[in-house]
Amino acid sequence: MDRRGQRRGRRFLPHRAGRRGPDLGPDAAEIYGLYLDPPRVGTGLGRQLFIQAVADLQDRGHAPICVYAYRPNRKAITFYERAGFRADGVTRLDEQDGAGVPEIRLVLP
Length: 109
Description:
The protein has 109 residues and is an alpha+beta fold. Helices cover 26% and strands 28% of the residues.
């Protein structure tokens, strides 16, 4: 929330263990979503929320941490890579979003 009480962005922490991929181990976690109002994109708020989410998961003992990004979304992939995440070769189709676009998994060890 900003000083005027308006929502500036949201982050979601993992809530379903199966989505992260069983190959990452029992302490792994997935950051499932990061959403900003379009006028807030490019302000640094997304990075702040993401860093906070990663730190929160690390403080809870989760490692590795993963995120998924649509393969053609270079902007998102670059965002995650700048935060230290690396693509590990795992892909999936998210059947819940109905987009039919492959997602790649990026992992922070």
